[in-house]
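Issue: copy button drops trailing tokens. Both records pasted manually instead:
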Amino acid sequence: MHGPDSDAPGELVRRAAAGDQRAWDQLVARYNDLLWSVARGYRLSTADAADAIQTSWLRLLENLDRISDPDRVAAWLATTTRRECLKVLQRGSRERPHPAGHATLDGIDGSGPVDDRLLLAERDAELWEAFTGMSDRCQCLLRVLMTSPPPSYEAVAAALEMPIGSIGPTRARCLARLRTLLEKQGGLFDTEPLRQREGRS
């Protein structure tokens, strides 16, 4: 039995092209978050983003047996989603979602004390306020890099049309900018993890 993360992308594509439903399901599970991150970077409404993503999966389904390099399916999907998002924008359907739609990064499960939940919500609100103060480029890059599992740099490059070699340095600059904005706010958010991540870029 194949686990969702055990098979190479190219193998999943080849099996899906041969009619293996489990392989197709694994592709969707592995890369759907990446496609949502790409779509959110274009600030589409939830409905428009969902349409762009659904169309991207349909394009893959139509081309499973024609992809020249199946191991690069993540980059193929990212590029296709970017193009579909641009088509939506060209149709005049752009709508910027309010950051409250992404109110927390960690989620609140209701199991902790009320004070803990309030502090967590306040901390996350500070983070999103700082996040939306960055450039669109930084917001897009960090959204894509935050997906789970993390996308390959090749997929990131395809999604954002940037050279692979510039992703790490740009990520470090964006994290430094985010840390600076958070420190200026002087709130609850601990910026030390961001400083450490900057050093690993």
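Record 2 (pasted manually too):
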Amino acid sequence: MLAALPGLAQVALATDIQVIDAKARASLTPTATTAAIYVSVKNTGSTDDRLLSLSTPIAASAMIHETTLVNDIMKMRMIEGGLVIPAGATLEMGTGGTHVMLMGLTAPLKQGDTVVLDLVFAKAGKIEVNALVGGAAE
């Protein structure tokens, strides 16, 4: 029901992990083969958890990436071994930082679409969320 209400942030719950406000940007071109999804992951528990892997039916692969500025050059790299979500903390993914990188899109993302994304955590297990696709500049 939340996916039908665009003004509300989507929340997926599993044990102590909450995946909040999953969103993506529309592709800039009709031939786009990559895209990024941004989510916030909140750990309300008393122990750390680890985001191990991601998948979606709309891309050949989904991985955790981070963007850093090194010597005035933006660099992007895959985060190996997963991403720790500390107990009591919230990881907020966003442009210019940590994000879910989709590669090998089956079709470009269009504003108003919904992308199904599965996140697999070491303790919380698999959580499925729907990422709403906004405008290309949102």
